[in-house]
């Protein structure tokens, strides 16, 4: 039983995916989605697009499935050209001077799609949500992003940071005037002149203004409160990760890029664990990004956080994110089933950083990923606080982190840095290339049998491939 061209594209149209006549090249597909015909019209893009639809499209009671990724894509244009030119070939039905019907098959066991001169392997398909029709055009942009790059602030988040820097500088300036000190070197970068009502801004409730709040608490009516210096420094050290300047990289742009890198190197649904401290919850943003841009979901997502955490449990429940107690780390490490672990380190003793990296490596698989938000230098406002308090914030450099990573056999795959001393690292253990042996089993005298025995007995190879190919 086959679905016709009209049935296929009507089903896609119902789900909000409307294809024009030029791209309606899937002629028919069997109900199992394993064989069909695709139209060749001397245009590669519509032809290949039809192949993607063919082995990604499933129309059943469960919904609509479309491809979201593939591991191997091979094209030999000369094969297709030669077959098309040979009009006597039985597999290609000539329809006109420029149009031909080309057979296509899909093997669901090997996840391989084959047509004339085209082979696509290891396809991932996922159910897609209904796409609402909109009269507003959407402009999409594809950019090549270096694995080691700087974060570019833009949009509303950039404006919020500008306001925050302006307000922090205002408070730093007030303290400087009160203490009769030059504080210009401690001011945060402000690129625009803002008109900001400080009284109104300070009255706004916002939990990610740690440095501004502690500095503001040190001055009242032009009086500097020396007796509160140690207290506010300890408070800030504990909650530095909550400050707006220290979680700039918990943004859609940064997380999309690293999510793409991870998806391109896994091709499966992932188990993800976040070990949360005094830092914004990242796994919620990752879950939303995966659904919004990749039409995917995590296989299993969990977060370990303290009972006093301010993370909204209802939001976690809506996204099927399991909340685990601190004591569950031992059992998780025994299972070692996590594909990705997420955490952060802002400041503290070196031993705490070493313990965190050890914990993260203990819970991920040998080929798993670690997403680490790391502060490698203090920003000007933090340096000002340290100067006022006479204590140094325990921030460790990139060189220190690299030393800790080397001890744990971790390499840096990617790094995104922000202007305020923070970085987002993507880490992984180096993969060990396995030794492969290929033995051809076409010799009529079966001499290959002895080769197989030798390889199996001596165990020189991780994998032995037996290849049979007739001439």
Automatic annotation (TrEMBL):
It comes from the Eukaryota. InterPro entries: PKS_dehydratase_sf, SAM-dependent_MTases_sf. This is Fatty acid synthase.
């Amino acid at each position: 039983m086959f679905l016709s061209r009209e049935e296929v594209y009507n089903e896609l149209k119902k789900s909000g995916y409307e294809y024009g006549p030029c791209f309606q090249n899937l002629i028919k597909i069997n109900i199992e989605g394993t064989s069909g015909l695709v139209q060749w019209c001397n245009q590669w893009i519509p032809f290949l697009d039809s192949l993607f639809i063919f082995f990604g499209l499933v129309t059943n009671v469960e919904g609509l499935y479309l491809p979201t990724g593939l591991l191997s894509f091979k094209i030999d244009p000369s094969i297709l050209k030669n077959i098309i030119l040979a009009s006597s070939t039985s597999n290609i039905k000539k329809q006109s001077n420029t149009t031909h019907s080309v057979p296509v098959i899909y093997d669901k066991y090997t996840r391989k799609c084959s047509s004339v001169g085209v082979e696509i392997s290891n396809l991932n398909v996922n159910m897609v949500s209904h796409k609402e029709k909109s009269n507003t055009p959407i402009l999409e942009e594809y950019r090549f992003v270096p694995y080691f790059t700087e974060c570019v602030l833009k949009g509303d988040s950039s404006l919020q940071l500008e306001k925050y820097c302006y307000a922090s500088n205002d408070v730093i300036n007030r303290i400087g005037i009160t203490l009769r000190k030059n504080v210009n070197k401690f001011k945060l970068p402000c690129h625009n002149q803002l008109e900001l009502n400080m009284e109104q801004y300070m009255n706004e409730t916002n939990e990610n203004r740690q440095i501004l709040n502690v500095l503001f608490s040190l001055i009242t009516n032009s009086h500097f409160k020396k007796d509160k210096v140690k207290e506010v420094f300890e408070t800030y050290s504990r909650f530095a990760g909550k400050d707006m300047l220290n979680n700039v990289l918990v943004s859609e742009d940064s997380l999309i890029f690293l999510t793409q890198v991870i998806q391109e190197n896994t091709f499966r649904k992932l188990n993800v664990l976040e070990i949360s401290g005094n830092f914004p919850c990242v796994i919620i943003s990752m879950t939303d990004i995966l659904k919004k841009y990749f039409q995917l979901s995590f296989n299993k997502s969990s977060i370990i956080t303290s009972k006093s955490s301010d993370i909204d449990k209802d939001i976690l429940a809506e996204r099927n994110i399991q909340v685990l107690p601190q004591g569950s780390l031992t059992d998780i490490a025994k299972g070692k089933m996590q594909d990705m672990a997420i955490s952060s380190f802002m400041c503290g003793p070196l031993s705490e950083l070493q313990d965190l990296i050890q914990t993260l490596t203990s819970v991920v698989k040998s080929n798993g990923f670690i997403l680490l938000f790391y502060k490698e230098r203090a920003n000007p406002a933090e340096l000002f606080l340290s100067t006022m308090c006479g204590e140094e914030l325990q921030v460790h450099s990139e060189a220190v982190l690299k030393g800790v990573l080397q001890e744990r056999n971790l390499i840096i795959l990617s790094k995104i840095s922000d202007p305020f001393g923070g970085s987002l690292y993507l880490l992984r253990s180096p993969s060990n290339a396995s030794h492969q042996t290929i033995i051809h089993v076409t010799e009529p005298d079966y001499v290959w049998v002895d080769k197989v025995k030798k390889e199996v007995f001596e165990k020189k190879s991780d994998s032995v491939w037996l290849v049979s190919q007739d001439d």
